[in-house]
Automatic annotation (TrEMBL), chain A:
Residues 191-253 form the Metaxin glutathione S-transferase domain. The keyword Protein transport applies. This is Metaxin-2. GO terms for cellular component: SAM complex. It comes from the Eukaryota. GO terms for biological process: mitochondrion organization; protein transport. Involved in transport of proteins into the mitochondrion. Its main location: mitochondrion. The gene is MTX2.
Automatic annotation (TrEMBL), chain B:
It comes from Meleagris gallopavo (Wild turkey). GO terms for biological process: mitochondrion organization; protein transport. Belongs to the metaxin family. One of its GO terms (cellular component) is SAM complex. This is Metaxin 3. Keywords: Membrane, Mitochondrion, Mitochondrion outer membrane, Protein transport, Signal, Transport. Residues 28-147 form the Mitochondrial outer membrane transport complex Sam37/metaxin N-terminal domain. Residues 1-22 form the signal peptide.
């Protein structure tokens, strides 16, 4: 059973979105689903929405500026269900599973292990590459990230907060050994990751054949964001576009789960959130 | 063993692999294992003077005039020289290899770093003396401490942060993740001899590289080792590789 999903932007300039969700059986089970403005993690909202959509759980996304502070772990997006607040994909998946919805029940043990391994690959390579591009590539940082990140705040707070975030991310990159990488090496890693995903997907509709799983939601989230985010150059999205089956995969999921659900946008959300689509 | 037979390349590489096993213990094992699977003739030298290691970054592969210092690059180099353990893998299996390697790095590595470099008893009684005995004075006074701090830093930066507020909570989480990772590996291995059939590949080298230190080194604090010993197929996997390819029982490094 599907209720309309408010699918608003991955790129909510200067604002964040939070959603309300009604339980399919009509009981009061309101879920607030928050996503950040581009806090260097633009793909995560899409992943959550995709995952919740695939579970047939209706999600309503609304904009809020202080989403990061509402979240228990400081990370966005998060979902708000009744009295509970759950953030980050792993815990959200567990939470939804505890309520009786799961996408990976049909998999056997070896397939579950494989699914988890691929999820780590995506987190390891794609997510880190996205962060690198947003925060460690000087041109992108100056022209896109700083203005976007600091946009809700007045000067000088906007500069201070974005420099702080940048310093934090760079420290982390240094700890894992990515600080010394050049942009070409990062793009090569992305290419390697996309190649692996493309080979795994092959000609199947989803990664584990007929039914979507958490992995599909995760990959969709990242790839969709990469394909639709406007950056200085198109190199990153070109890497993904090299693999036809991956772009077809994204298009298919967008059509199946997100088309036709946009009409329910609330005024605040649609006013501030730009929408993009792969189907132009 | 058949891995050597599969190797196509005839030319002889005069390779020296310099080792100074820090958290590179893993990579050194891995590289040795990979080289053995692929039949690359490697001479392993324990480092005598780590000043000579370029950028003090180990392990290092020196082949004639070329010096390569990162494990992934070393593997690529060996492959290009046609010492390749993955000839017979399909594209999907190659993709699986990458995925499982990412799993090892994300889930198992923090706990390994912690066991070797952060856990106080282990560090003081095993890692530090062993490591310090293999590098020259005065580096032996400074380098172990630096490695330890870097390991802690890495763990906290990648795994710390809310809702985990103290080191003990982070530690509990990373060990949980490591045990889950070991369980997943065990399920994936099942009853086969290696991860992709009967011949060892890059993934086997990686898994061996990560597991062997946990399996063989005698630490005072051994929760991960105990968990590993319950997964008999992984233990059998390590033992097989040690007896077939290393022909000795390794103590450490």
């Amino acid at each position: 059973m599907q209720l309309p999903l408010l699918f608003s932007a991955k790129k909510a300039h200067g604002s964040s979105t939070f959603a309300a969700l009604r339980c399919p059986n009509g009981s009061v089970f309101s879920i607030t689903f928050s996503q950040a403005r581009d806090r260097g993690r633009t793909s995560l909202p899409t992943i959550r929405e995709a995952f919740l959509q695939m579970c047939n759980l209706p999600v309503r996304v609304v904009c809020r500026a202080n989403a990061e502070y509402m979240s228990p772990s400081g990370k966005v997006p998060f979902i708000h269900v009744g009295n509970q607040v759950v953030s980050e994909l792993g815990p959200i998946v567990q939470f939804v599973k505890a309520k009786g919805h799961s996408l990976s029940d049909g998999l056997d043990e070896v397939q579950k292990a494989e699914m988890k391994a691929y999820m780590e690959l995506v987190n390891n390579m794609l997510l880190t590459a996205e962060l690198y591009l947003q925060w460690c590539d000087d041109v992108t940082v100056e022209e896109i990230t700083h203005p976007r990140y600091g946009s809700p705040y007045p000067w000088p707070l906007n500069r201070i907060l974005s420099y702080q975030k940048q310093w934090e991310i760079r420290r982390k990159m240094k700890a894992i050994g990515w600080a010394g990488k050049s942009l070409e090496q990062v793009l090569e890693d992305v290419d390697q990751c996309c190649q692996a995903l493309s080979q795994r997907l092959g000609t199947q509709p989803y990664f584990f054949n007929k039914q979507p799983t958490e992995l599909d939601a995760l990959v969709f989230g990242h790839l969709f964001t990469i394909l639709t985010t406007q950056l200085i150059t198109d190199e990153l999205s070109e890497k993904v576009k090299n693999y036809g089956n991956l772009t077809a995969f994204c298009r298919r999921i967008e059509q199946q789960y997100f088309e036709g659900h946009d009409k329910d946008s609330s005024a605040t959300a649609s006013a501030r959130c730009a929408k993009r689509s792969l189907l132009r | 063993p058949s891995a050597a037979d599969r190797n196509a390349q005839a030319c002889f590489l005069n390779c020296c692999l310099t080792l100074a096993c820090a958290n590179q213990i893993i990579f050194c094992n891995l590289l040795q294992a990979y080289a053995k699977f692929a039949g690359a003739p490697l001479i392993v030298n324990t480092i005598n003077n780590s000043w000579s290691s370029p950028k003090a970054d180990v392990p290092v592969l020196i082949s004639e005039d070329i010096v390569i210092s990162q494990p992934a690059k070393i593997l690529n180099f060996l492959r290009k020289q046609r010492y390749n353990a993955d000839y017979e893998l399909s594209a999907k299996q190659g993709a699986d290899t990458l995925a499982y390697i990412a799993l090892l790095e994300e889930k198992l590595l923090p706990a390994l770093l912690h066991t070797f470099w952060v856990e106080a008893e282990n560090y003081c009684s095993v890692t530090k003396p062993w490591f310090a005995s293999r590098i020259p004075f005065p580096l032996s006074l400074y380098l172990p401490g630096k490695m330890s701090r870097e390991a802690l830093n890495r763990i906290l930066l990648t795994r710390g942060g809310p809702p985990l507020y103290s080191l003990t909570e982070v530690e509990a989480q990373i060990y949980r993740d490591a045990k889950e990772c070991l369980n997943l590996l065990s399920k994936r291995l099942g009853t086969s001899q290696f991860f992709f059939g009967n011949t060892p590949t890059t993934l086997d080298a990686f898994v061996f590289g990560f597991l062997a230190p946990v399996y063989k080194v005698c630490f005072p604090r051994v929760q991960l080792q105990e968990h590993l010993k319950e997964l008999t197929n992984l233990c059998r996997f390590c033992d097989d590789i040690l007896t077939c390819y290393f022909k000795l029982t390794v103590t450490d490094g």
